[in-house]
Structure to design on (313 residues):
């Protein structure tokens, strides 16, 4: 993994900014998984000595092979883990007959793009290569993510044929990283348009140490105005094609950092390429982000798995 280049963010060097940001980040709550009887935890999914890890969960009963959801956690690329409380959303799939794989990836405090998408695709290849050992059907894979995890899920979904966004040296080069469906919640799509969309909606642009225009520089490798080509490379819309998988896209209209226009425009572009029957946009009126108790309700989670059922069962 290449050492991130030293840049200036928020009036500080990258190293100084990261040190202050680490100190300011909240501790995430961990998920309760003791009640899940069939599970394998902390499995390395690349061939690197410091490989990122994944967890595998299976439904309580049944011999499979099960369709699988690979969940990618959120956290603005700067915090979060597979053990975080938000992963509970994915574990709802166990009662719907899905295997669930939850992955970690390198946070942008430690590395910039394309490290994260390389790891996500390596995890997909690992799941395909090891599917039989865990009663998983490698031909029925869905991606799911929220916030930064949604961005990575969307990017992996649309760019499966893009060689520069895949590092097969991480393992299982004989496998591809195609998936059959993607579910994303409040996803950042085009970093370049977030602030103008917030202004159009009459919202204030967030300020402060962890404001997206600063923290996103860690993921992009520099402030976005300095790397327009990287902003384009990280945009899932760049790679949309008729071969893109079906997408369920959900977004709260009152999300204070990520304007729902991000999801609206993404859905419109997908519809033009893969058709309206394969794209579902769910705008939650008056609802904020994942910390809003009205976001991940049983009804909204059910919609996501109902969509996955259409394409994975």
């Amino acid at each position: 993994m290449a050492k991130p280049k030293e840049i200036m963010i928020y009036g500080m060097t990258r190293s100084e900014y990261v040190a202050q940001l680490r100190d300011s980040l909240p501790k995430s709550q961990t998920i309760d998984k003791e009640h899940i009887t069939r599970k394998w935890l902390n499995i390395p999914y690349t061939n690197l000595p410091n490989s990122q890890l994944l967890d595998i969960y299976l439904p309580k009963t049944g011999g499979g092979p099960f369709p699988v959801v690979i969940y990618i956690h959120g956290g603005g690329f700067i915090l979060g883990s597979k053990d975080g409380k938000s992963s509970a959303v994915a574990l709802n799939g166990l009662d719907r007959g899905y295997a669930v794989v939850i992955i970690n990836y390198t946070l942008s405090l430690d590395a910039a793009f394309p490290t994260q998408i390389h790891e996500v695709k390596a995890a997909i290849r690992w799941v395909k290569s090891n599917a039989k050992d865990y009663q998983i059907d490698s031909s029925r894979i869905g991606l799911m993510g929220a916030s930064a995890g949604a961005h990575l899920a969307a990017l992996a979904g649309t760019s499966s044929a893009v060689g520069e966004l895949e590092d097969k040296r991480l393992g299982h080069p004989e496998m591809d990283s195609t998936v059959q469906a993607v579910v994303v919640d409040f996803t950042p799509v085009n970093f370049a348009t977030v602030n103008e969309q917030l202004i159009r909606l009459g919202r204030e642009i967030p300020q402060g140490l962890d404001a997206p225009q600063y923290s996103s520089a860690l993921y992009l490798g520099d402030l976005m105005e300095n790397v327009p080509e990287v902003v384009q490379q990280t945009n899932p819309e760049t790679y949309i094609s008729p071969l893109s998988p079906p997408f369920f896209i959900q977004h709260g209209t009152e999300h204070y950092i990520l304007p729902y226009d991000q999801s609206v425009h993404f859905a419109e572009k997908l519809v033009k390429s893969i058709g309206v029957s394969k794209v579902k946009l769910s705008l939650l009126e008056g609802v904020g982000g994942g910390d809003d108790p009205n976001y991940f309700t049983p009804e909204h989670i059910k919609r996501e798995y109902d969509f996955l059922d259409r394409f994975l069962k």
Summary: The beta strands are 8-9, 12-13, 39-44, 53-57, 66-72, 99-103, 136-146, 181-185, 247-252, 279-284. The first strand starts at residue 8 and ends at 9. The longest helix spans residues 115-130. The chain has a mean pLDDT of 95.
